[in-house]
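Narrative of activities, Objective 1.

The group set out to show that a structural description can be obtained from nothing but a protein's sequence at a throughput compatible with the screening campaign. Below is one input-output pair from the validation batch, recorded exactly as produced.
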Amino acid sequence: MKMKCIIAAAIMAVSFSATADYRLIIPQNPGEGTSVWGSIVAKEWEKKLGEKIVLEHIPGANDIPGFNKFYNELQKDPKVIMLAHGGNGESFLIHKVDYDYKQLTPIGLQNLTIVVGLRADADMKKLKFGYASGTNPDAMSINMMLCGPGKTIPEYAKCFKDRMIYVPGMKGNERKLAFIRGELNVTRETPAAYLKYYKTDDYKLWFNSGILDLKTGKLGVDPNFPGSTFNEVFKKTWGIEPSGDYYDMYVLVRNYRDVLQKSLWVSKDNPNTKKLRDSLTAMTNDKESMAVIEAETGAYPWIIGTDVNKAMTTLENVTTKKALKDLVQWTSTVFGQEAFYKEEIAKKAK
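Output recorded for this entry:
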């Protein structure tokens, strides 16, 4: 009798999984950037998938708990999809997390960038910026743009202390309001959000972080914002391309943050993998769907299926031991945040 009950429960579980809606796990609160992206993409994706996609928010410190819960528990359900974002990529590099991208199956991602904007009345002697998950690369690029080329990491650390105020605990909406009110004089946004909220002469686009060229492993230009990538603006400002140890550790964390900024994952051997990849491909080939999505994200490339593994290999190839050690040291001593050197990430790097 007991065995019959167990078998019946198993059959019911399989049946429920087959008929239940897909669940898209989002490691943030509703209304934040990744949630907005997920809501827009899910509506267009489910048109091709033929099934409903329900958003499930699991927020927490540095947006880590949601991904950890998916990795430890929720991925066992073949209808659960993880929407990871840039802060998760940064945390994977230098924080203690449970999840491991290599132990998951990629469905697809959008290779994105971030825009850095200034208030028109900003005092360039001292910039005030708000911190949340995923904003460390922007603080690093702002600091390098302010302080110029040819400095050692300790010299950049001193410049950061002298010329920047990094305000902790500011989520996207809080940072947006503080910037509009003038409490912050520099901010970062997705391209679409920047164009939506900062159209007036009170604000100006400073630079964007560029797009990683997955063939060369180098930062490429952003066709959506011609002439305004970090490297282009740095050279216009200082007469020389950015380079050096500080730049290398910035590029490392920037790559993990932006390439993995909006990425979709399921469990290994998930029986729905092909269906999910095929439907996502169909969505990206649909002009009407892409018009809706690009109104929020900008026109940025999608990478789907096994091509995501190639993107991950590109990230691994630029994860040098020195850049990773420098990043851990910088995060701990300058940003005052916990960071850990992970030999397992860097052991195969140059």
